[in-house]
Write a sequence for this structure.
């Protein structure tokens, strides 16, 4: 008789994953991170300014696409936890996602002029379905790679660092093209990043699933849906973590949706927005080793809070900038980028810990189901943030057309939305995350309880 799905995935606490395994596992994060900023930032700007779709319509399309796609998150999570194949339960979903993502990236990043809101909505839905099929099983697999409190932060840090390297590279290429060859602008950035994505997607997913063996010791989850929801609802640390990151991500999505408008409308810089984004993500990348050390000293949730507070303190400095001040924006972006490194790494590592608590209570490993709920919360935030910010911009009458004249009040409205979205939402997220209860000591007791459970159910297992 097989034991319930409570055994650690591949390594017991204290074991160290090889750098080779960490590297190859981390590769699919490359296309995910490369795509994230163009999808959040440049696509709304491009379709809402250069392709002539109104900002209110773009915001509405964005929200509808996110809400429709939210249906697929629990479906994919539920199905992945119950998938049984000779190749495991995660990798088959990742491979199946690649064709959908390739097709939607091509359609969204290389649109014909004259496309409308229906076109944008359809291909955004296809993109998010493929994204869900890749991200949820991939991140669930990462939560199963190690049972150790700190090594989970290492897994998250490797995944973030490898992905962030590709992210920085994808932003560096358009910057070089702009400053050396005068080739730049929103359309050109989308095309360059689109080409990179269409190479990275199949290559990185193939290398990952080929080189990293997925553990086959987990039996499929069997708990009925309603019973599983009840167990999840009683998981207090998960609810606190989910709420904090949901609020965190609303602030992120508002900032991402308005940053190019801010750079163009407030600072008067038409083409160099990609330079600021490069500066921010380079700071993210370089700060990852620092945040790993902080998490070892203070714990993962306190490191996350520290990163959020850096944003709260530094972001209001953008209020001081005006026409011609683009390069004064870069040091502020670098400071906030250091803070951003914390919440690329820490919340993802913390998710694996709250899944352990569910495993202890349910007797099953339902990592993909938890990541599906997490993904659903992120997409709700991504729906609300751009819809809210673009709707307010439309309400104040801001004209996003290149070269358009906006009044002082309209520019001030844009400025206030961009500058204060992150301090407001990040500050609230920090307050919620501060009392997150799963410390290293509590997690050690949790893992010991899981091991005792396995020993009781399968006493003959070594």
């Amino acid at each position: 008789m097989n034991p319930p799905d409570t055994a650690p995935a591949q390594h017991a606490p204290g074991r160290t994953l090889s750098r080779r395994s960490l590297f190859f596992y981390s590769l699919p994060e490359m296309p995910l991170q490369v795509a994230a900023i163009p999808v959040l930032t440049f696509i709304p700007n491009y379709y809402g300014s250069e392709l002539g779709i109104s900002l209110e319509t773009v915001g509405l399309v964005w929200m509808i696409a996110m809400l429709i796609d939210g249906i697929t998150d629990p479906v994919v999570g539920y199905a992945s936890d119950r998938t049984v194949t000779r190749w495991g339960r995660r990798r088959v979903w990742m491979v199946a996602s690649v064709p959908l993502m390739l097709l939607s990236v091509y359609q969204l990043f290389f649109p014909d002029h004259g496309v409308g809101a229906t076109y944008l909505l359809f291909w955004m839905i296809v993109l998010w379905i493929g994204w869900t099929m890749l991200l949820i099983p991939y991140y669930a697999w990462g939560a199963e790679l190690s049972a150790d409190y700190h090594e989970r932060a290492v897994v998250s840090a490797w995944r973030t660092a490898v992905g962030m390297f590709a992210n920085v590279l994808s932003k560096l290429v358009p910057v070089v093209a702009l400053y050396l060859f005068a080739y730049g602008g929103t359309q050109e950035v989308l095309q360059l990043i689109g080409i990179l994505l269409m190479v990275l997607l199949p290559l990185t997913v193939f290398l990952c699933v080929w080189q990293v063996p997925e553990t086959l010791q987990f039996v499929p989850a069997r708990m009925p849906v309603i019973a599983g929801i009840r167990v999840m609802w009683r998981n207090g640390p998960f609810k606190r973590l989910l709420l904090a990151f949901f609020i965190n991500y609303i602030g992120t999505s508002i900032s991402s949706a308005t940053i190019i408008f801010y750079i163009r409308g407030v600072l008067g810089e038409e083409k160099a927005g990609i330079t600021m984004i490069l500066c921010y993500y380079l700071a993210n990348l370089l700060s990852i080793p620092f945040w790993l050390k902080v998490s070892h000293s203070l714990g993962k949730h306190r490191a996350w809070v520290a990163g959020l507070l850096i944003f709260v303190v530094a972001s209001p400095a953008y209020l001081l900038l005006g026409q011609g001040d683009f390069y004064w924006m870069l040091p502020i972006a670098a400071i906030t980028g250091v803070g951003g490194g914390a919440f690329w790494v820490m919340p993802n590592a913390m998710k694996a810990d709250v899944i352990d608590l569910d495993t202890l209570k349910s007797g099953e490993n339902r990592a993909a189901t938890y990541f599906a709920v997490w993904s659903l919360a992120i997409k709700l935030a991504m729906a609300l943030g751009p819809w809210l910010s673009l709707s307010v911009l439309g309400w104040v009458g801001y004209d996003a057309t290149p070269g358009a004249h906006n009044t002082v009040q309209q520019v001030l409205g844009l400025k206030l939305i961009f500058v204060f979205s992150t301090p407001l939402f990040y500050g609230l997220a920090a307050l919620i995350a501060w009392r997150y209860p799963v410390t290293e000591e509590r997690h050690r007791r949790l893992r010991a309880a899981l091991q005792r459970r396995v020993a009781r159910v399968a006493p003959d297992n070594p």
Summary: The chain has a mean pLDDT of 83. The chain is about 75% helix and 0% strand. Residues 383 and 401 are 23 Å apart (CA to CA). Residues 19-457 form a domain with the Growth Hormone; Chain: A; fold (CATH 1.20.1250.20).
